[in-house]
Amino acid sequence: MLAKGWQLTADLEDGAASRDFAALLPLELTLRDYHGTEKVADLPVRLSTEGAPDGTDPAIGDIAYYAPWGNIAIYYRDFGYSSGLVRLGRIEGGVSGLAGKDPVVVRIETIVTEAD
């Protein structure tokens, strides 16, 4: 279980789906465990997949959009190639605190840095 106030930082990719996701922020979601590999949550709207590859092979720490279901996934274990999966970005640092069966309520928001 994550400690209250635990924070992760991620960098989003430059693509239509990532821009659509960023436009939804701030966003509060309940992440549910899926197959002991990732945490998933439904998004309130579908994201554009324009210009995205047909699928991707996510790595630990990746944030992705699964277009067929319209949900977001955050990977805490390695997973193979999946058609319909669009990588949105990558979390900096470890994500092992996401592992487990308990749902996790998260708030995702934009942080503006000097580089932005």
UniProtKB/TrEMBL annotation:
It holds the Pfam family Cyclophil_like2. This is Cyclophilin-like domain-containing protein. Residues 4-109 form the Cyclophilin-like domain. Coiled coil: none annotated. InterPro entries: Cyclophilin-like, Cyclophilin-like_dom_sf.
